Amino acid sequence: MYDLFGRLEADQVAAAFSGSRLLDGVADVFADIRARGERSLVITMSPDFYATQLLELGCDAVHASRFPAPPYTGVVFDPSGILTPADKPRLVGDELAVAGIAPERCVAFGDSMSDAPLFRTLRHTVAVNADEHLRDLAAVHYTGDDLWAAYELGRGLLDA
């Protein structure tokens, strides 16, 4: 891990995030969810020092693999903080229980097979730019650059 991230500085992480290519409409989707009195949650196996920057775009909560904040000076890395695909259904279940939300009111969006365990536990699932393996598990799928369009498919699942 040190070889990958050990020399990073916080400003480099912020610059990498701001230069990342996100789907169009990410902040609009988070804002709409919040305006409806609902909650958004991102679960990723990516490092938390990167993923938590989604909070600035309006995401309500982020669960990511726990890493020490860069730079890693004198810090011991704890591998137990790294998320696995199996953690995703557990984390969603915990969040739903705390918020008092039924699983039938939850829509999961995913793009890779790390989302397969979650897609196997929820009914309302949207595969976004995913390969056929995840698309086969999803209720609906979307291919493109507009998260709002994928979000509308997910809202349609809730309204059906």
List the helices and strands and how they pair.
Elements: H1 2-5, H2 10-18, H3 26-35, E1 41-47, H4 48-51, E2 61-65, H5 87-99, E3 107-110, H6 116-119, E4 124-128, H7 132-137, E5 140-142, H8 147-159
3D structure, described in words:
The protein has 160 residues and is an alpha/beta fold. It has a single domain (2-159), classed as Rossmann fold, CATH 3.40.50. The protein has eight helices and five strands. The strands form two sheets. A three-stranded parallel β-sheet has the order 3-4-5. The protein has a two-stranded parallel sheet with strand order 1-2. Helix 6 (116-119) links the parallel strand 3 and strand 4. The longest helix is centred in the middle third of the chain and has 13 residues, at 87-99. The radius of gyration is 16 Å and the shape is globular. The chain starts with a helix and ends with a helix.
Shape: globular
Proportion of residues in β-strands: 15-25%
CATH fold field value: Rossmann fold
Per CATH, the class reads Alpha Beta
Structural class: alpha/beta
Fourth-level CATH superfamily: HAD superfamily/HAD-like
What is the number of E strands? 5
Summarize the biggest pleated sheet. 3 strands, parallel
Q: What is the distance, rounded to the nearest whole angstrom, between the alpha carbons of the first and last residues?
A: 45 Å
Rg estimate, integer Å = 16 Å
Note the run of SSEs as H and E.
HHHEHEHEHEHEH
Helix percent band = 25-40%
Average per-residue pLDDT, rounded, comes to 93
Low-confidence stretches: none
Biggest sheet, spatial arrangement of strands: 3-4-5
- Put simply, the count of helices is 8
Architecture per CATH nomenclature, i.e. the level-2 architecture? 3-Layer(aba) Sandwich
- What is the count of distinct domains? 1
